[in-house]
Amino acid sequence: MINSSEAELTDKEFVLLRDLIYKLTGITLSDAKRSLVRSRLQRRLRLLELSSFQEYYAYLVEHLETEERTAFINCITTNKTDFFREPHHFDFVTQTVIPEAILRVQRGADSRRLRVWHAGCSTGEEPYTLAIVLQEALAGKGQWDVKQLASDIDTDVLAHAKRGIYNRDRVDPIPDTLLRRYFLCGTGENADKVMVKPKLKEQIAFRQINLLEEPYPFSAQTRFDFIFCRNVVIYFDKPTQRQLFARFARYLRPGGYLFIGHSETLTGVSDAFQNIGATIYQLSEASSMKVKAA
Predict the structure, then answer these.
(1) Is 40 designated active site?
(2) Which residue from 68, 185, 203, 281 has the highest number of Cβ atoms inside 10 Å of its Cβ?
(3) In the CATH hierarchy, which top-level class contains the domain 4-76?
(4) Which of these is catalytic: 34, 38, 40, 253?
């Protein structure tokens, strides 16, 4: 048997694996990702004692409804996130979204209720950041019912997010006052780690969701106040992006907001949203009426 650590990824094998990941997740892999695919899947070859990527592909197809499918997806997905990443989004929530929500309550047009979806939450820094922002923005504003759904296709990063434990250097972007208020500092052998306090964790439900596979694990009548889907669709082709943003439009409340990544755009992808700022979009009134009618 050939040592799997020496296995080469041929053109044919790369195409097979690339097409399969696209079918399963919608992720598009360019030729530039070939070395990444090879290096990340080497561990699966070693674990399964397989000698080639052709053998691994055959094994994967045969065991597609098992945990190997999850392992394959976890190996391929890319996860990059930080606390308070792209801070203008959180500023917008504080300065615009929350004041609008409070005004609706004062006018009797709405209840003290907020629902948020993070579609691609990675290791949890984004939803925990928003939890901090919402806690601070709603302090002294009465009792609010706030729930966040944080989803990802990668079960490994979801497990990390649920634990809510991070190395000290990961929380550097968080001001000291907020760090003390919302995190527990480790001691002894865990002195280099911090853990999210329960009052943030209880606001967030972490779920595995493949954005291409409906029905999603929530009611079709669910309407989120805003959705974060940042630095996710850059891995999808245009048809997949159109499909996904059409779904987001269905699950947003009238006038709801969508936040996307700094290198992403809805231009030529969706006309359901109005661009109101840097990578900040609002569901248009016409689109809200169409969703309501449907």
Answers:
(1) yes
(2) 281
(3) mainly alpha
(4) 40
